[in-house]
Design a protein that fits this description.
- The protein is an alpha/beta fold and about 500 residues long.
- About 40% of the residues lie in helices and about 15% in strands.
- The protein is built from 18 helices and 16 strands.
- The strands form three sheets. The chain has an eight-stranded mixed beta sheet with strand order 3-2-1-4-7-8-9-10, sandwiched between helices. Strands 13-12-11-14-15-16 form a six-stranded parallel beta sheet, with helices on both faces. The protein has a two-stranded antiparallel ribbon with strand order 5-6.
- β15 (about 465), α17 (about 475-480) and β16 form a beta-alpha-beta unit.
- α5 crosses α6 and α9 runs parallel beside α12 (about 340-360).
- The longest helix has about 30 residues, at about 255-285.
- The protein binds nicotinamide-adenine-dinucleotide.
């Protein structure tokens, strides 16, 4: 994490206003982005990099976040031209640094910035605060904070500005939540024209293709009316490589809101399906990775089949399906129950417990007094995001069963969600003397590890649980030769060969 507390990165309102007016005079359009999290901090960078045909910057971009210490850190980072989030994609820090150099990218917590913009992008979070797979009516969202954020935009925005909602919202979110709030705020300021609202969900993936996943990828969008849709399409056409990735307009905001949620629910259900087959493969002695590889050759229908793993984490796949079920029950008063989608959420939620079962088997059925080293607490390889990491459930259970746990992760400097768990800066520090080492995330730093490295790090005859296919049969055989115990999620062939036993 970047610490730039020492640098003077304050952006006063007067300073910001001067810059904005000067940029306008140079022909730039003003864009405000609400929310500078994993999505917003990359969106500001990409929008600021958009150019006119003559090579001049097209936009003056103002990132707006709240005044919490973490948001202030992000604001300061962007004003210093530094990425606020550790990114394996060098393009992100490069674009942010260029935005600062050019002077067309600033960040602030002053909401008056919304009043300057012709286009406002909403990239804030909308959390599911209460999940329920059984009772749709019990699902609750963080609508209070979402709505108050939209209210702030409405109370400052130019009535003619276009608001593009990129946040993942429940189906009906733009028409039943966002537009009425904006309309009421504008009416309070004397503007009775309906606000211009569009929906264009983000498909950004904060990994090695962080920037490309915004700029060079397909986008779906819609508008609350024709003018809003047209303006949104025109705007997206200036930041996305539409020659290679043509935009797709759908007929209503409900449709694009549903597209985003179905997209993620499909992925979650695909993962849940494979979890079921993981259990079967381990029971009948089959290497499920070999099976999946043989199926993936069917390009177009089967090549995106998921594979066995440790669990589902992150902000989106763990919540998005609930937004759909919330919509049905609460926004539309419908009795529709998304049975299969909700079942997938249950299976995925319980997935890390499967690794606990494998670990128990590896350690003769008891974890009491055992030292377990977990490698990987972020939810995805090489990205410093620990939100809803499956490691949480795994560690909680392993600790409850009496083990002492320590963790390591090269993508983060600590584990915010579990500060009480010893976080080791070095791999060896975590592994030394452990009864079992568990690899849960295929971080690049782990992928080159050989059996000799594991043996040297642990320093005694140990046990390996490969929960995310980091190691091949060669490593397993070499460890077996050194009398290690070895198990792997989805690796039924190791289990059939009794690699987990002494
Ligand atoms: N993270 C991803 O990979 C990803 C991908 C696609 C879509 N999305 C969706 O995009 C949205 C944002 O996700 P994220 O991962 O960036 O979330 P995040 O939690 O990382 O960031 C949200 C940001 O919004 C800020 N914010 C909250 N209220 C605000 C307010 N009133 N004014 C200004 N700023 C405010 C927060 O301080 C935070 O910095 C979510 O709906 C998410 O589902 C996320």
């Amino acid at each position: 994490m970047v610490n730039i507390v020492e640098r003077n990165t304050a952006q006063s309102w007067e300073e910001l206003l001067l810059k904005a007016r000067a940029a306008e005079a140079r022909g730039m359009k003003l864009v405000a982005v609400q929310g500078l999290g994993f999505v917003g901090c990359a969106v500001v960078a990409v929008v600021a990099a958009a150019q006119l045909p003559n090579g001049q910057p097209r936009y003056f971009v103002i990132g707006v976040d709240v005044a919490t210490p973490e948001a202030q850190r992000r604001i300061a980072c962007i004003n210093a031209g530094v990425a606020p989030i550790a990114s394996p994609d060098p393009e992100l820090p490069k674009l942010l640094a260029e935005g600062r150099e050019r002077g067309n990218l600033v960040a602030t917590s002053d909401p008056r910035a919304f009043g300057l913009a012709e286009t406002v992008l909403i990239d804030i979070n909308l959390d599911v605060t209460r999940m329920s797979t059984q009772a749709p009516g019990n699902i609750e969202l963080g609508l209070e904070s979402f709505s108050s954020a939209i209210k702030v935009v409405g109370s400052h925005m130019n009535p003619a500005a276009l608001v593009i909602v990129e946040t993942t919202v429940p189906i009906g979110g733009c028409e039943k939540i966002v537009q009425p709030i904006l309309a009421s705020e504008l009416a309070a300021r004397g503007s009775l024209e309906p606000p211009r609202v569009a929906h264009a969900y983000e498909r950004v993936t904060p990994g090695v293709n962080y920037v490309r996943s915004i700029r060079s990828f397909y986008r779906t969008y819609s508008g609350m009316d024709e003018v809003s849709a047209k303006l949104a399409g025109d705007f997206l056409g200036t930041i996305v490589d539409v020659e290679s990735y043509p935009l797709r307009q759908v007929s209503s905001t409900r449709a694009s809101e549903m597209a985003k949620i179905l997209e993620n629910s499909y992925r979650a259900a695909n993962i849940a399906l494979i979890q079921e087959w993981t259990v079967l493969a381990e029971e009948v002695g089959v290497n499920l990775f070999e099976v999946i590889e043989s199926i993936r050759v069917r390009k177009g229908t089967h090549d995106n089949i998921r594979q066995p793993g440790f669990g589902v984490g992150g902000y989106c796949l763990t919540k998005d399906s609930f937004l759909a079920q919330f919509s049905a029950a609460t926004l539309f008063g419908s009795g529709v129950k998304l049975e299969m989608t909700m079942r997938a959420m249950e299976i995925n939620y319980a997935m890390p417990l499967h690794s606990v079962a494998r670990l128990l088997e590896l350690l003769d059925g008891s974890l009491a007094g055992k030292a377990v080293a977990l490698f990987g607490v972020s939810y995805i390889a090489d990205v410093g995001d620990t939100r809803n990491s499956p490691s949480e459930q795994f560690v909680d259970k392993v600790k409850a069963l009496g083990a002492e746990v320590r963790v390591h992760d090269p993508a983060v400097e600590g584990w915010r969600e579990r500060p009480e768990i010893p976080f080791c800066a070095g791999m060896e520090e975590a592994a030394r003397g452990a009864d079992a080492v568990v690899f849960s995330v295929p971080h690049k730093a782990y992928l080159s590890l050989q059996a000799a490295d594991l043996k040297a790090m642990v320093g005694k005859r140990g046990a390996l649980l490969d929960a995310n296919n980091l190691f091949g049969d060669g490593v397993a055989l070499e460890l077996r030769a050194a009398q290690w115990r070895v198990a792997g999620v989805g690796k039924g062939h190791w289990r059939a060969a009794r690699f987990h036993q002494a």
